[in-house]
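In response to reviewer comment 3 from the previous cycle, which asked for concrete evidence that the modeling workflow produces usable outputs, we include below a single protein chain processed end to end. The sequence was submitted unchanged, and the resulting structure tokens are shown without manual editing.
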Amino acid sequence: MAQRRTARRDAPAVHRSADGRAELHPDPEREHGWLLTVEGVPQSYVDLADPTYLDFEYMRMMGDVVDCLGDGRAPLDVVHIGGGACTLARYVAATRPGSRQLVLEPDAALINLVREHLPLRSVRGLRVRITDGRAGLAALPDACDDLVILDAFADTAIPRELICLEFCHDVRRVLRPAGVYLLNMADGNRLEFARRVTATVRRIFPHTVLLAEPGVMRGRRFGNLVLAASAAAPGPRPLPGHRGPVRLLRRRRPPATERGHLDPRTAQNPLRTPLAVRTPSFVGHLIKACIGTGNPCMAWRPRVRRFSTSRSRS
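The workflow returned the following structure tokens.
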């Protein structure tokens, strides 16, 4: 008990940004782990000793998508809209050496906090630009990136200007023909917001895959959903044989109404999917096989441990 108390007294203190909105909390279970919160809401988790460690469930889903692009090893040109602690940027730099990445983040105080305590200079090929996502993306040339990642929140919600049809057009302009648009969103009961966002994205990117934890996907609880979309199919990639238990669920196809309509009562329901795979180990193959199907595909993921700010060292 005495050793535990001594370890807690010697633990790094919580660091705060200049405006007091952002804080960095040390992880009591991982020596080099840090949790970034903004106004008390967890935003990013970084392990400085292991950038491939992704603590948040939704971040692992996004990492799955990144791992499935191309041959899984070639460098990528990536734009991150919303920086936080640059968790996914660090992951890409570690798993895809030689990648060129640009982070667009409007919160200068947050970035200064991250630069001071979670150094970014060691992340090769990474640049950070202090600007909002809409203006920053508009300044980029055509067909210059392989991957655009949207992970930006204001007061726990994605800014409206980043989920409109015009912004999706701009994302498509910046991406190369086989590029992928990857976004993180949060929703709960009935998933009305997620349905609208998915329908809007599918008007520009017809090939999509949606990843979420079972309770979230069913609309039973609030949580994160990750949507990956592409304008061009990467080619047929059938699911390989698997001896484990896999359940394929067939559901009634929605009425053939206009895609992208904002009224969930009359629009094609992008979450009423023809295929769902329950086996988590299949997620990687699922992304490869279904991102080019032209139909929305849903993958369910299991619940995992989440880092809690209540477990602080004091």
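The first strand starts at residue 15 and ends at 16. We consider this sufficient to address the reviewer's concern, and the full set will be provided in the supplementary archive.
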